[in-house]
Design a protein that fits this description.
Layout lengths: L1 H8 L1 H35 L4 H51 L9 H44 L1 H48 L1 H7 L2 H52 L5 H42 L18 E10 L2 E11 L4 E5 L6 H8 L7 E6 L2 E2 L5 H6 L1 E4 L10 H6 L7 H10 L3 H6 L17 H15 L3 E5 L7 H15 L3 E5 L11 E6 L2 E6 L1 H7 L2 H12 L6
Parallel strand pairs: 3-8, 3-9, 6-7, 7-8
Antiparallel strand pairs: 1-2, 1-4, 4-5, 9-10
Helix pairs in contact: 1-8, 2-3, 2-4, 2-8, 3-4, 4-5, 4-8, 5-7, 5-8, 7-8, 12-14, 14-15, 16-17
Length: 573
């Protein structure tokens, strides 16, 4: 655990942690020495003239206790300092890691797991230097010091105690194995429960409209699983705790039995036996505490393992010597990509010349959104390459790449902040006039006029206080404000009503003028004027050309267009 803690705490705080460990070891040794001094003190008290030699031993004990008090104060201060530093370091490193992970890493099961890591797991790890390291060090160093002292006073009893140590260690490892299995199961159950609770809260509108049966059932199943797991944790951990306590008490019983035998054989003075038994009791006491401490240590160790596992997740590597793209032409060269073992794109090649608009259409699930996100390097391709301005995007610094992109995706997320700050996210240093102009172009101003606090209105978590169309317009305003040379539009007008769709199209026309544009849309009239159209099907480019060329070819695109054209005349009867 100590090695893991040194890894997690980071290089900037390792020195303080090592100093704390050194102080704790010194304190544990001083504690063992204080216990050992009880033997000559008790032997003197049982002697014929205790007054003549008792006080020198008492003075030595007093000095040891004063040194221990100083050590306790120093290590306590270091523990609080290291715990606070550990909290800051962990949250920072977890945040940096999460921000560097490819988006493909994030799945439905990750929300609860990340919530557990950022809260309970971090708190468990913080408790190690603040509360667990001292008893952990004491359970090892203090008994070892006591055993050394026993060899000074009676080697036979010392050997008897030493022989019990391997048995205690084996039983302790068995106890940790039991609690470790239960802790892993409980952590998984808690992550599942946390994810279901978040899902249940976020999907309330859907659950209430379509019936809460499925949502209630999934949440209740997760809660029942968590309850059953908690009971298994208790049932699994108790035998180990009892077994360790029995092993420790058995070792003490062996010492008593051997000591009584030696006294009856007149090979050991009764006064020495009493003193040594007091020392042996001090040997067993911290180990007995280990029985209770073991489960907590295992939980903290599990938290360390989970945090280290996240920190070890492969992130998208940054180039050591970043290259600067010569322009904004986008090129896919024999790109292969898939999520896990599921292939999505197969040998995809195309070029989006700088300053032109390319429309990407095709059936749902054909890989259109994946193409747009590969341009933003949300993942790295499995084979082939994606280039920007003649440079592989893996050679472009992430900050430089993102600065060149304005993105409006189908799924819009707004932060729990004001409407104005959500737009300003596109360019944090923009002036108020620039923010207002972008909002006007995206038809956000009319939303502001009817909100109770105007620009200062908080939009709620994920933008919950706004409609889907309103959230989309805020997202478009962000892109307009950013004013980047490359624009990626993924169903940007899908959530808008007919009236606002026209207004947003006008805004997008301004946004995309003289820029390199990739637009994904199912409404084909939004892409018919593109410089080129790519028809993507089953992860492959099935057709390419202009609108007129593809209609003349009478292929997949023509059939897709005819189907969508007929759908415009559908009506409910």
């Amino acid at each position: 655990m100590i090695r893991k803690l040194l890894t997690v705490v980071g290089p900037e705080h390792r020195s303080a942690l090592r100093h704390m460990l050194a102080a704790l070891v010194i304190g544990a040794v001083l504690q063992g020495i204080a216990f050992a001094l009880l033997v000559p003190i008790l032997k003197t008290l049982f002697g014929s003239d205790p007054g003549s030699v008792l006080w020198p031993w008492m003075y030595v004990l007093l000095v040891v206790l004063v040194l221990y008090a100083v050590e306790y104060y120093v290590s306590l201060q270091l523990g609080v300092r290291v715990g606070a530093a550990l909290s800051k370091s962990l949250h920072t490193r977890l945040g940096d890691t999460v921000a560097s992970l490819p988006l493909g890493w994030f799945g439905a099961d990750r929300v609860g797991m990340l919530g557990q890591l950022a809260t309970k797991s971090v708190m468990d790890i913080m408790g190690v230097p603040a509360h667990l390291l001292r008893p952990l060090v004491n359970t090892v160093v203090t008994p070892a010091t006591v055993i050394v002292a026993l060899y000074v006073f009676d080697w036979r009893l010392a050997v008897a105690v030493t022989l019990t140590v391997p048995v205690i260690v084996l039983v302790y490892r068995w106890s940790l194995t039991l609690s470790g299995r239960a802790d892993a199961a409980r952590a998984a159950a808690r992550a599942e429960t946390g994810g279901r609770v978040v899902e249940f809260a976020q999907l309330q509108p859907v659950l209430r409209v379509f019936g809460r049966g499925a949502g209630d059932r999934l949440l209740e199943e997760a809660l029942r699983t968590d309850h059953r797991t908690a009971r298994r944790v208790l049932a699994t951990a108790v035998p180990g705790l009892v077994g360790l306590s029995v092993a420790v008490q058995a070792s003490f019983t062996i010492v008593i039995a051997l000591g009584v035998y030696l006294v009856l054989d007149r090979d050991l003075a009764p006064a020495t036996l009493v003193a040594v038994l007091v020392l042996a009791a001090r040997f067993t006491e911290p180990i007995t505490e280990l029985a209770v401490l073991g489960s907590t240590l295992k939980s903290a160790g599990g938290a360390l393992d989970r945090v280290l596992a996240l920190l070890d997740e492969p992130v998208l590597p940054e180039p050591l010597t970043p290259a600067t793209p010569a322009g904004n032409e986008i090129r896919f060269e024999s790109v292969e990509f898939g999520y896990g073992d599921t292939p999505v794109l197969r040998d995809v090649s195309f070029v989006i010349p700088e300053g032109t608009t390319t429309a990407l259409i095709g059936p749902s699930g054909s890989g259109k959104t994946t193409v747009s996100r590969l341009i933003g390097r949300f993942w790295d391709v499995n084979a082939g390459r994606v280039t920007l301005g003649g440079v592989d995007i893996r050679s472009v610094a992430g900050v430089d790449l993102m600065a060149r992109l304005s993105v409006v995706f189908q799924d819009v997320y707004l932060f729990e902040d004001t409407l104005e700050e959500n737009i300003r996210l596109g360019r944090p240093n923009a002036t108020d006039a620039q923010v207002r102009a972008a909002a006007e172009a995206a038809r956000v101003t009319e939303i502001v006029d009817r909100l109770p606090d105007g620009w200062a209105t908080r939009v709620g978590e994920g933008g919950a206080s706004l409609s889907g169309g309103e959230r989309q317009r805020v997202s478009i305003a962000r892109a307009i404000l950013k004013n980047a040379p490359i624009v990626l539009l993924d169903e940007a007008t899908a959530a808008l009503d007919a009236e606002n769709e026209r207004a947003v199209h006008d805004a997008l026309a301004t946004l995309t003028a003289d820029r390199t544009v990739l637009v994904i849309a199912h409404r084909l009239h939004t892409v018919m004027h593109a410089d080129q159209i790519l028809f993507l099907d089953n992860g492959e480019i099935a057709e390419r050309g202009t609108h007129d060329e593809l209609l003349s070819a009478d292929g997949r695109y023509a059939g897709f267009w005819a189907q969508r054209h007929r759908a415009r005349n559908w009506s409910l009867t």
